[in-house]
Structure formats: structure tokens, C-alpha cells
Amino acid sequence: MSKNYSGPGSTLTFVAPDGGATAGVPLVLVDTVVIPIASGVAGDVLVGHLDGVWRLPADAALLQGQKVALQAGVLVDPLTATGDTVSFGKLMSAPVGGIAEALLIQ
Q1: Phi and psi based region of residue 83 (left: phi greater than 0; alpha: psi -120 to 50; beta: remaining)
Q2: What is the pTM of this model?
Q3: Where are the chain's structural domains?
Q4: Structure confidence by residue, pLDDT tens digits, 52-81
């Protein structure tokens, strides 16, 4: 049996950056996206999810199953978006009313 197993790796403990963090709102930490479990102000130690399916704001032109990126809190097509984006994962549902479900894949 291995003795170096540390855990499933589905959460990350982090220090909230300037501006803080809001529960359920994606937060980019360098190249990693976390979904904070709780809200906190800058300097608070928080825990965020590193995977799972999340209902988030999404560009209406996205299609179920396509690769998506995060840009200013909105899911976008990484091939057509301009400006800074961070890879998020795959779209699990078509956007309805500006919201879609997406699978967070690191």
C-alpha cells in the first residue's frame, strides 16, 4: 500500500486574494480555477472545489459538450474570445437565460 497518498485532490485550501472571494463564484489562482465553498475577505483562508458541475453565466452562442474558458466570470468559447481567459472545462448544457452547467476540468 502506498504511504504517500495525500487525498482525493478535489479541494484546495487558499488565501483569499485582494478583493476577497465569493462562495460559488469561480476564482482564478494563477492557472487554477477554484469554486470557493465560503465567502471571505482578502487574507482569509478558504477552501475551494477543483472539480464538479457548476451553473454559471455563459455566452449564449456556446453549445453543449464544447470546451469552455472563463473570462471575467463568464463561460466563453476559448477559440473566439478576445482578452484574458483561463481554461474551465466542458459545457454540460446549452445556455438558457444566460446560464449553463459546466464541468470544471483542471
Answers
A1: left
A2: 0.91
A3: 11-50, 53-104
A4: 999 999 999 999 999 999 999 999 999 999
